[in-house]
Hints:
This protein is mostly beta strands and 302 residues long.
Amino acid sequence: xxxxxxxxxxxxSGAACTVYPFGAHVTSYKTASGRELLFxxxxxxxxxxxxxxxxxxxxxxxxxxxxKAMPQHGFLRNNLWKEVEGSRYDNNDSAGISFExxxxxxxxxxxxxxxxxxxxxxxxxxxxxxxxxGFETTIEMENTGTESWPFQVLLHNYLLVGERSAMDEQKCNxxxxxxxxxxxxxxxxxxxxxxxxVTAPNLNVDRIYTPPDGQLELNLNIVAGPSxxxxxxxxxxxxxKKVPASCVVWNPHKxxxxxxxxxxxxxxxxxxxxxxxLLSGLPAVEGGKKASFTQEITSLDA
Length: 302
């Protein structure tokens, strides 16, 4: 399997993205006009020695580390995926590619219920589709075993914020999470968000937003710097039934940025992570069944 990055270009518009087979990791998407939507740390490791810092890391079967016996965010982002044969295409409307990985080929970052001697099994397929002004990513998780498994899945988007303005509440914010229950993972505070936009003021921000009852799809409008408005939608299913989509908003700020060897210590002002995922209120995936999660990110100023 190749480890070299793959570039997909939409011939009709010129939009393009880059995907690394290690982690099936999207590191760049540029609109037809050349606007980059994703942040990639200047110190990111691109040689497969660790998960790539920036772009869109894939988190499964857990987000964070609720199971301490398993590495943080699971194993998908730390293993080599293979391109699905015949999946590349390019037509007038869009272009795309798919990657896949079976559990037996996920040799890194296993643990807990998913350790090397597990009775669980899974095959994941990740499809990236690009068009003139935006892109879509879909991860499908198929239970190829007989035992059911609980899961979390999250698309850890690092969005590029223009003019180094991530700390400016007017130039960088997220709208569409009003009514969501908030868990602040820094302070432990819990509350329900009002109508105000979510911002990353001058501090470390790490919050989980859980939708109110009956809210299944995520619909966000993001300001990521001057004249850089982005739409993000997301939805998921388990065995064909829609399930609620949550969201995480994260910015490491100065102190945590300085502590990460693969993150430029001053680059926290250049990014905001807005991360849709399936985190709670989910049924287990039974043997032979599937779960899926899709996001669409569109530049409104392309």
